[in-house]
Amino acid sequence: MNVKEAIKKRRAYRSLDPIEVDDELIRDFAETVQITPSCANKQPWRLIFVKDKKELNRLFTVLSEGNKWVEKASMIIAVYSKPENDCMIGERLYYLFDTGMATAFLILRATELGLVAHPIAGFNETKAKEILKIPDEMRLITLIIIGKHSKDINPVLSDAMKLGEKQRPPRKQLKDFIFINRYNRNSKEP
After folding, report:
1. 189 in a domain, yes or no?
2. Of 12, 100, 119, 158, which has the fewest CB atoms closer than 10 Å, so is most exposed?
3. Which CATH number does the domain housing residue 20 bear?
4. pLDDT above 60: residue 8
5. CA atoms within 13 A on the CB side of 61
């Protein structure tokens, strides 16, 4: 599978079947993230791979109501960082960009391996950091849910989520976010 195929195939499925999570898979993901580009090669991201069922169950308690489907996860990857871990250029929070790129690389690698890697924002950051023992000064940016796509739709999903399991949700038109040479004030704002 080439990169473009992985990008097109990637989906944020919520109906998951279990997978075997071994040290080889974790190392594969870690090595993928390790070579992600970053400002001045600072590699600001930090990851915790949670695969132990007891620890996963503890994390399930911090999820928002809409993320109950996560309880089918075989692994959760906590992605965290802080501004000082990366280039500090004025007011820009560049660590978020670099950590986002590392997350995208990991998601594409999971897709290439036939897995689902679904990042979520619906969790209580403070409680999740306590469970994971992440230092207070760090920001828990996302939790990436790992599993294998199930053909059986998870019954806890809302109707909209169930539809998303069957078809890719609509995307914005290119004209809504692409400009050539400069921003065009006459264009429709997204």
Report:
1. no
2. 158
3. 3.40.109.10
4. yes
5. 12
| CA distances in angstroms from 181 to 9, 97, 109, 178, listed in the order given | 30, 23, 33, 10
Number of domains in the chain: 1
Rounded to an integer, what distance in angstroms lies between the CA atom of residue 62 and that of residue 5? Answer: 34
Residue type at position 59 = L
What is the phi-psi region of residue 41: left when phi exceeds 0, alpha when psi lies from -120 to 50, beta otherwise?
Answer: left
- CB–CB of 86/39 below 8 Å? yes
- 186 domain residue, yes or no: no
Identify the residue whose tokens are 């050539």: 180
Give the pair of three-digit tokens for residue 87. Answer: 């280039």
Residues whose CB falls within 8 Å of the CB of residue 158, separated by 6 or more in sequence, listed in order: 66
| 188 within domain boundaries | no
| pTM tops 0.90, yes or no | yes
Specify the residue for token string 């071994």.
22
Range of the domain at 56: 3-176
Q: Determine, yes or no, domain membership for 168.
A: yes
